[in-house]
Write a structure and sequence with these properties.
This protein is of the alpha/beta class and 384 residues long. It contains 9 helices and 16 strands. A 6-stranded mixed beta sheet has the order 1-2-6-3-7-15, sandwiched between helices. A hairpin with a 2-residue loop joins strand 1 and strand 2.
Length: 384
């Protein structure tokens, strides 16, 4: 039987605690992480109630110098639900061929374990850090309103001058460019009628399809072509309409996912959606449409080119791996990106174990070796 590091075994324990969002609960994971942190020496631990049964956990280790910018590492405890047919048990945490399998293993129980283990080493060795060090475990990162991150902002828990790190899966590259995300709900209202008298009705599903086609064409014709992300994309997440085969659909509901690349703005995205709704509804007599946002409007963001986090990570990575660190982009929002947006703080990066293409995937896994390297790199970063 292989001997695995404490960080790997901690990842296993975390994966074995289901914390699916929205069709589960984070409560058991919250209790485990809080108890684990409270057992550490030289660390102060507090909780923040986000809503009933959901708490952020804030751990702090005091640095030596007053006035230095604190380092805040944030990892979320929730995962997406288990869906589809898995070939392995999603909560067994099986390790095979150097890979640890399970829901949340990549996104992001392994990143959470790395942050926790780094803090344990710092605290038990009583390392003399220059900066105050926070490790925060959050709830609801996978939700449309990212309630954990927003609670941290609303209660001013994260210092305004903090250096922010999310240990999300980046394959141990440094993500400094962040794709924007806006979700829309389209409601199309028509008029139902008997299929034999379709001319008396107004087909809402037909109008919805016209809207989608127009919107896809408009997005495809945009001139943006980012060096990391390529072109903006829009996808249909869900669509539902009508009630019976022999009836004209009187209503239709569509959810859209719009991914923006720099320097595209949320205003431009909203205008494209509004134009497409107007044109699509105009093409089907008797139909009207409306739109609202699902969750926050999250534009593309860039880490400040002058952020000290860049040099801290580049130096730490080379010390541990003996290779240059690669910079990359992150195609979604994280807790630190949301905090950066809300507080106008551009000192945020994403760095963690796991390939992002495994996030939310069937048979999700993380490479064991990356977990161990990540802990070592974070230990070097916090000493900068």
């Amino acid at each position: 039987m292989a001997n695995y590091s404490e960080a790997v075994m901690l990842t296993q324990k975390l994966v074995q605690i289901p914390s699916e969002n929205p069709n589960g609960s984070e409560e058991k994971c919250i209790a485990f992480v809080e108890s684990w942190l409270r057992a550490l020496p030289n660390v102060s631990v507090s909780t923040q109630v986000v809503e009933q049964g959901r708490e952020n956990i804030i751990a702090k280790y005091d640095g030596q110098k007053v006035g230095e910018r604190p380092l805040v590492i944030i990892a979320h405890m929730d995962t997406v639900p288990v869906e589809g047919e898995w070939s392995v048990s999603p909560f067994e945490s099986m390790i095979q061929d150097g890979k640890l399998y399970g829901r949340g293993s990549c996104d992001m129980k392994s990143g959470l374990a790395c942050a926790l283990m780094m803090l344990k080493v710092v605290a038990t060795k009583q390392m003399k850090l220059t900066r105050d060090l926070y490790v925060i475990a959050t709830v609801d990162e996978e939700g449309p309103y990212m309630k954990g991150a927003m609670a941290l902002v609303n209660d001013n828990i994260v210092p305004s001058n903090a250096l922010l790190i999310a240990t999300e899966p980046t394959n141990l590259t440094l993500a400094t460019t962040h794709k924007g995300t806006i979700w829309y709900e389209l409601l199309i209202e028509g008029k139902s009628s008997h299929g034999g008298n379709a001319h008396l009705g107004a087909d809402a599903v037909h109008a919805a399809s016209e809207i989608i086609v127009r919107l896809k064409e408009k997005v495809a014709n945009l001139s943006y072509d980012h060096q990391v992300f390529g072109k903006p994309t829009i996808s249909v997440g869900t669509i539902e309409g009508g009630s019976k085969t022999n009836m004209v659909a009187g209503s239709c509901r569509v959810e859209l996912d719009f991914r923006l690349v720099p320097p595209m703005t949320k205003e431009e995205a909203n205008e494209l959606v509004a134009q497409s709704i107007q044109e699509g509804c105009a093409s089907v007599k008797g139909v009207r449409g409306s739109v609202q946002h699902l969750g926050w409007q999250r534009p593309p963001l860039l880490t400040s080119p002058e952020s000290v986090l860049r040099s801290m990570f580049h130096e730490a990575y080379e010390q541990v791996v003996n290779e240059p660190l690669k910079e990359s982009g992150f195609p979604a929002y994280t807790d630190v990106t949301m905090i950066g947006l809300e507080t106008n703080n551009q000192n945020f990066v994403v760095f963690g174990p796991g390939h992002l293409d495994q996030a939310h995937a069937i048979d999700e896994f993380v490479e064991v070796e990356q977990i161990e390297k990540c802990v070592d790199i974070l230990l070097e970063v916090v000493q900068k």
